[in-house]
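Appendix B. One record, verbatim.
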Amino acid sequence: MAGAHRDGLNRSILRLAIPNIISNITVPLLGLVDMMLMGHLESVAYIGAIGLGGTIFSVMYSVFSFMRAGTTGFTAQAYGGGDETEISYAFYRSMGIALIATCLVLGLQRPIEWISMQLLNGSPEVLGYTSDYFRVRIWAAPAVLSLYTFNGWYIGMQNTTIPMVIAILINVVNIALSILFVNTFHMGVTGVALGTVIAQYAGLLTALIFMLTKYRKYLVPIEKAVLLQADKLKRFFKVNTDFMIRSILLVLTIAFFTNQSAKLGDDLLAVNMILMQFFYIFSYFTDGFAYAGEALVGRFTGAHDQENLKKTVRYLLLWGLGLSVPFTLLYWAFPETFIHLISDQPEVAEQARPYYIYMIIIPVITFAAFIWDGIYIGATAARGIRNTMLIASLLVFLPAWYFLMPRFGNHGLWIAFLLFMLARGVSMSVMWKTKAV
């Protein structure tokens, strides 16, 4: 019976994880295509511009990405507890935040661009292309922010197939349009940005169609007293504020890594942006299991099922470890093949060679942090995820960067980043085990 129960739980994990993995595969594929399109143009500045432009939006959206995590956690717990009213209002509260966020982002787009250009350390050529990219892609903000709510809610409802369909649609449309705009209409970084904008709205339309056809019964008339219930709102904003702090620190750390890479020159910036693609590739595979963790941990937390909660945590970590091994072997066996796939610039390929080791060890260093993220989000253990991120970013990454980069250059920067990811996994493991979440 125990074996059958274990197999059933693992099947539930895989049922939720596999659609996320399939959809997530298209995300790094999009990044690879963008890098390949830029990497085969006449200047490495195009690669740097895509890297810096992507960093601006990652930082900006990190302020609001808590909406997806928070929506998943609250929805999954309501689902596990059989509370249909709270299922509906978890969606409404999150969508209200999305609308407010949209107004802020579009209204402040000029100051955001100016501040970003002041903070980024790129050459004038790179910054010029980055600005062109920003001014087009900013108009995808309403769709991106709304999709945080839709996708978080669907995952909380134990349905990862719909987010998979949405993600695949977005990225296939994005890739097709980017290739068309860059190779046929010679629009450069502007073409990549325009492809992103159109694709995001296609995804939003798809998410709305699914809501109206499959989950219409949850679109109940909004009652102000329920929407603004004091204890629900207090918990909603407390949890989401902590998730927001965590997200901002995570993306600021990656943005700081990118910024420091830019100080090393256009060639090393391009190298690091290419190598980071392999971090993203692994993260998107592992995030499939993290999203499964969000859904199942939230469900069992809401149902007060401690036995299945503990088993889910253990199985998820084993899946993460098992996934890290083949990725490490793959990165070890074919590093040059992957590099040349992205860029045929000879100086980039040559300068990347001393840094292969970091690409190779990324999976085993980072898998625990990704899996624990999903567990903490499902449990709405917001204080814990916030505190561990503070430890990893402020007490590990920054001191490591300060002491290592001046002495070891780009090697020091990479070591600091990997120590940051390792610290996240270790601190979350300790905090969960000691029930200090």
